[in-house]
Amino acid sequence: AAFAATYPQLNALNVMGLHSPNSAILSAVIFNALIIIFLIPLALKGVSYKPLSASAMLRRNLWIYGLGGLVVPFIGIKVIDVLLTLLGLA
Questions:
Q1: What is the pLDDT of residues 38-78, one digit of tens each?
Q2: Domain extent listing, the chain
Q3: In the chain, what are the helix, strand and coil shares in percent, each to the nearest 5?
Q4: How does DSSP assign 3-63, residue by residue?
Q5: pTM of the prediction?
Q6: Could you say which DSSP state residue 6 is in?
């Protein structure tokens, strides 16, 4: 996002359709700050333990934390970018 103004060819990598390089960076920083705030209680409390086999536990954790860790940032950053654009902050 930071180099899109200098190298217009990089706009092809804007797959999320973010408003501008500035709003993209600001959205990512805000998302990271919010996710840290939400993950601290999870780290302090821990997760519930369910007696499962190793393969079942791995499968469950990959679905929850693996897929969630890939999808949630894209959705969160896009939502924050839209809000920043609507509020005229970026």
A1: 889 888 988 778 898 999 999 988 988 888 888 999 999 99
A2: 8-87
A3: 70, 0, 30
A4: TTTT-GGGGGG-TT--S-HHHHHHHHHHHHHHHHHHHHHHHHH--------HHHHHHHHII
A5: 0.75
A6: T
Residue 50, token pair as written in the block: 């369910």
Tokens 């060819």: give the residue. 9
> Which residue do the tokens 């990959």 mark?
62
Q: Is 85 helix (H, G, I), strand (E, B) or coil?
A: helix
Rounded CA-CA distance 59/17 in Å is 32
- 80/32 Cα distance (integer angstroms): 11
Task: Give the residue carrying structure tokens 């998302």.
Answer: 31
For residue 40, give the 3-state DSSP assignment: helix
20, 61 in Cβ contact below 8 A? no
